[in-house]
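Forwarding these from the shared drive since the link keeps breaking.
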Amino acid sequence: MPDAQTPSAIVFDFGGVLMDWNPRHLYRKLFDDPEEMERFFEEIGFDVWNLEQDRGRPFSEGVAVLSRQFPHRAELIAAFHERWEETITGPIEETVQILAELKELGYPLYGLSNWSAETFALVRPRNSFFDWFDLIVLSGEERVTKPDREIFDILLARAGRSAEECLFIDDSATNIAGAEALGFQVHRFSAPGVLREDLVAR
């Protein structure tokens, strides 16, 4: 792209970029009708509820709170905690390969993810590429989530970098907009091949 800059460091989101996480991977097993599944997500306000776990609320507490609100959905709500590992199919291998190449080239690599510390602890030991990061800032540990400026400031302070020298990669339009407003170079992730083209251009 003509306005691309050369970043000094690369910041990766995890879910949807490096790991194929989606609650639908689990709930497709629990619903025969995809439209009914989507109505369930909308009814319980899944995204807003789950963000509180990403912000550090224990899963057991989150399940209890939502089950009181929607007792007729309690079993389905509990499944998200009990069968959480079924929400991840595994790494997005093409993106992991890009990460490996960036590491080999010597780029500082940072992780910035909205993720419960409770469930990240299940995933990290099984995926050695997380060890390639020079720094990981996790919302569940900091108790603040993207796109709040505070979590970006935490990352920059610990990395000792300015926003302008970092390329931030995330699949969320909201998070991308938040980072861009702070001066980050940004790439909204859609596919590994598109990311690779953008990195080459930069």
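-- next protein --
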Amino acid sequence: MEDAAFTQWFGAELATLPGVRAVTLGGSRASGTSHPASDWDFAIYYRRVFDPSSLRNKGWQGDVSEIGGWGGGVMNGGAWLTVAERRVDVIYRDLDEVE
């Protein structure tokens, strides 16, 4: 799968998770400064409630934290995954905290 197709497909997959209001691509992939070994950084935005088990249930290899499992402030947990042979980080962001 080409990188552009992966970005669209994975973003759409994250957008289907219950409670997710928006998905963004960040990091070097978003800024155009990535290299072939760069990971993929996505953020999911929800309001007040997100159940990480919905991400875990997608069955992708890796670790999925609970809300508040790490970070602080606008980052309150996330996942480190391998999806379609790519290293992917997913950050949880509560819109109430972001605003």
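The longest strand covers residues 86-94. The beta strands are 20-26, 40-46, 61-64, 78-83, 86-94.

- D.
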